[in-house]
Design goal:
It contains 2 helices and 21 strands. The protein has 296 residues and is mostly beta strands. This is Transporter.
C-alpha cells in the first residue's frame, strides 16, 4: 500500500465522476490509418473488444493508493458510410455505440460495479486529400455524445454520463513515402451539466477537455500495417455545485498496433496500450483491444 492520507470513502468522492470518461472516449482515440480516404459509397461495420485494468490511483500528481482496482470490459459497435462530395473531399456520417461493464475491487469496492449501454455518439468527419507530393490528408470531425446510456443517479458508477458532449477532432496525415506515414490528431470537448449527480442533489459541470495523439506507422504491404505512438489528455476540471474540485486531468499514454486484412473484406487489428504518467485518476496498467472490420 502506498503512503497516503485518503481512505476508501474519501477516494469515492474523488473518483465517482472521473472513472467513466475513458469508457466513451476509447471509441474516438484514432488508430493508424483511420482517417485515410475511403472509396465513394463504401460502408464499414467495426467491432471493438476492449479490456483495461488498473489499480494505482493518483490525486494531484501523487499516488494515494495502489489497491484501487478497476477493470473494464467494453464492446463498441461503429457503423459508417463514406460519401464523396467532390474530387478529394469525403464525408463519413457514423454512429458509435458502446456496451460494457465496470468491475471494482480492493479499496474501489465501495464504488460498486456497473454495466449496460454507454452513451451513443454521432459523428460527421470530413476529409480533404491535399495537393502535396504524397497526397497528405486533413480531416475535421465533430462528434456529439448523446445522454442515452444507462445512468442511475443513486449509483457511484454508471456507463452513461447523463449529459451532452460535443467533441471536435482535427487530424493531419503526413505521408513520407509509400510505406511511412505520421497520423497526428488534436481534439477538444465541451460538456453540458449533469443536474442529477450524487443522488440528484448536486450539479456537475466540467471544463474543456483536450487530447493530443501522434502515431508513426509502417505499411509492410497492402494487407499489413504496424503503428506506435503517444497520446496526452488534459483539462476537464470538475465543478460540483459551482465549487471547483481542482482535479484537472493530465495523462500520457502509449499505444502500439498491428493490422492485417485476413480476407479482402475483413481486417483484424490488435492493440496494446498503457498509461505512462497520470496526474488525476486511475493509471491503466494494461489495455488490450481487438478490432474487427467488415468492409461492404
Amino acid at each position: 500500500m502506498a503512503n497516503h492520507t485518503y481512505n476508501a470513502i474519501t477516494l469515492t468522492g474523488l473518483l465517482s465522476a472521473g472513472l467513466l470518461y475513458s469508457v466513451s472516449t476509447q471509441a474516438l482515440e484514432i488508430s493508424v490509418g483511420d482517417y485515410e480516404p475511403l472509396p465513394d459509397q463504401l460502408n464499414l461495420a467495426i467491432l471493438y473488444l476492449n479490456t483495461t485494468s488498473g489499480s494505482d490511483y493518483y490525486n494531484k500528481g501523487k499516488k494515494v493508493s495502489d489497491n484501487f482496482k478497476l477493470d473494464t470490459q467494453v464492446a463498441i459497435v461503429r457503423l459508417l458510410h463514406n460519401i464523396e462530395l467532390s474530387n478529394g473531399v469525403m464525408m463519413e456520417p457514423q454512429i458509435v455505440v458502446p456496451y460494457g461493464s465496470l468491475t471494482t475491487s480492493g479499496e474501489a469496492n465501495v464504488l460498486g460495479d456497473a454495466d449496460g449501454q454507454g452513451d451513443a455518439i454521432l459523428g460527421l468527419p470530413f476529409k480533404w486529400t491535399l495537393n502535396t507530393a504524397n497526397k497528405d490528408v486533413l480531416a475535421l470531425a465533430p462528434f456529439l455524445y448523446t445522454p442515452s446510456g444507462n445512468y442511475d443517479k443513486s449509483q457511484e458508477l454508471n456507463m452513461g454520463e447523463n449529459r451532452w458532449r460535443l467533441l471536435l477532432q482535427s487530424t493531419y496525415i503526413r505521408h513520407f513515402n509509400a510505406h511511412w506515414a505520421l497520423d497526428s490528431a488534436a481534439d477538444a470537448s465541451w460538456y453540458s451539466a449533469n443536474n442529477d449527480y450524487q443522488n440528484g442533489t448536486s450539479k456537475l459541470e466540467q471544463g474543456m477537455r483536450y487530447e493530443l495523439q501522434s502515431y508513426l506507422r509502417y505499411k509492410i504491404d497492402d494487407n499489413t500495417m504496424l503503428g506506435a505512438g503517444l497520446g496526452h489528455i488534459g483539462g476537464a476540471e470538475r465543478r460540483i455545485n459551482g465549487v471547483s474540485q481542482n482535479d484537472s486531468q493530465s495523462t500520457t499514454y502509449l499505444r502500439a498496433t498491428i493490422s492485417h486484412f485476413v480476407a479482402p473484406q475483413w481486417q483484424l487489428q490488435g492493440l496494446f496500450g498503457k498509461d505512462l504518467e497520470v496526474k488525476q485518476g486511475i493509471k491503466q496498467d494494461t489495455q488490450f483491444q481487438l478490432r474487427i472490420v467488415r468492409v461492404f
